[in-house]
Amino acid sequence: QCSVSITAACTGNPESSVESLYCDVALSWWCGPEPTGSWRHACKSASHSALGPGTHRCASASVLCWGAGRRHLAQTPQMSTSLPPRVCVARSLVFGRQLDIHSGGADLAFPHHENEIAQCEAFHQCRQWGNYFLHSGHLHVKGKEEKMSKSLKNYITIKDFLKTSPPDVFRLFCMRSSYRSAIDYSDGTMLEAKQLLLAAAAFVEDARAYMKGQLVCGPIRDDVLWERLCHTKDAVKAALADDFDTPTAVDAVMDLVHHGNRQLKAHAKEPGGPRSPAVFGSIVSYIEQFFETVGISLADRQSVSGDSSQATLHSVVEELVRFRLQVRQFALATGAATREARRQQQLDRQPLLEACDALRRDLIAHGISIKDRSSTSTWELLDQRTGDQRPGS
């Protein structure tokens, strides 16, 4: 339980290189129990080995080019005995003499992270303490220059955000900008992220319906889709390897969704033509894997947990949708009747179709959406906070 105060040290030669500037890690004890064990050993080691050979302490911090400045990690009265100060010595006890990745806000690059580097490289006597520093941009309220901050009282709490949008929408919103860049929060940008997520979820649902034979479309150019899938995998891998370029990766996946939708929307000239479920199975698997990797789930919205009440609800909705489908198919069937007879049948059965449509509208209020396809009907749960399809439910 100690804090580290930094005293500048230099070689005395004003023309010397930056590498000749070192930190003297001196201990300043705070009001609390005497440090014991590894804490005491680490702190003593820090004070004895921080300076390299041939260096000496400066008489005053004023001789340095940047002046006395402020103490970086000194103990402050606000820090109680129950909350030890954040010191590089403590971090070293956990992670050792080297870090793979150190993250933080862009405003911490200097002097905060530069100070950490100076302390830790002096303490460990190494030339590279952190391998990679990831400096993230700030979240701004659109139209304002300052970042979203509690101190400025211009922030939105997570609790309030979740009242209108699911967390997956915010994740995709963040992925649409480079982690290094500042990003504007607004209703418009959140709506764009929500629409992209819904488009991906809707494609997955349609693709599954096609694989089950529930969706009829024209002949599928599976060679084009296989090539597009291969191209997307390469593009996503290259984007993520290029400084975590998530916007490009998301664009590549959504482009794959676009090409898949174009094939599914093609009208069939003749029913019962050849089908290509394998390529759509591979595309769906890849898209779901991509989103799950970044914490976004596009799982089947009809899936339920092991809870018995949920399983009962699933069975009831299945039976209701099946009964409605039978009524709707009867209302649409005309058989081999003459034109005049078909017209009369349509007039007589129109109330049945209207009742089916009314049932579909009524179920939306209860969080259930029914989609009528060519020869069948499917259903899904909705996010009752927004009335949209709920990815991952």
Automatic annotation (TrEMBL):
One of its GO terms (molecular function) is ATP binding. Residues 93-194 form the tRNA synthetases class I catalytic domain. The keyword Cytoplasm does not apply. Keywords: ATP-binding, Ligase, Metal-binding, Nucleotide-binding, Zinc. The keyword Membrane does not apply. It catalyses: S-sulfanyl-L-cysteine + L-cysteine = S-disulfanyl-L-cysteine + L-alanine; tRNA(Cys) + L-cysteine + ATP = L-cysteinyl-tRNA(Cys) + AMP + diphosphate; S-sulfanyl-L-cysteine + tRNA(Cys) + ATP = (S)-sulfanyl-L-cysteinyl-tRNA(Cys) + AMP + diphosphate; 2 L-cysteine = S-sulfanyl-L-cysteine + L-alanine. GO terms for cellular component: cytoplasm. Its cofactor is Zn(2+). Pfam families: tRNA-synt_1e (PF01406). One of its GO terms (biological process) is cysteinyl-tRNA aminoacylation. In addition to its role as an aminoacyl-tRNA synthetase, has also cysteine persulfide synthase activity. Produces reactive persulfide species such as cysteine persulfide (CysSSH) from substrate cysteine and mediate direct incorporation of CysSSH into proteins during translations, resulting in protein persulfides and polysulfides. CysSSHs behave as potent antioxidants and cellular protectants. Belongs to the class-I aminoacyl-tRNA synthetase family. This is tRNA synthetases class I catalytic domain-containing protein. It comes from Ursus americanus. The lineage of its organism: Eukaryota, Metazoa, Chordata, Craniata, Vertebrata.
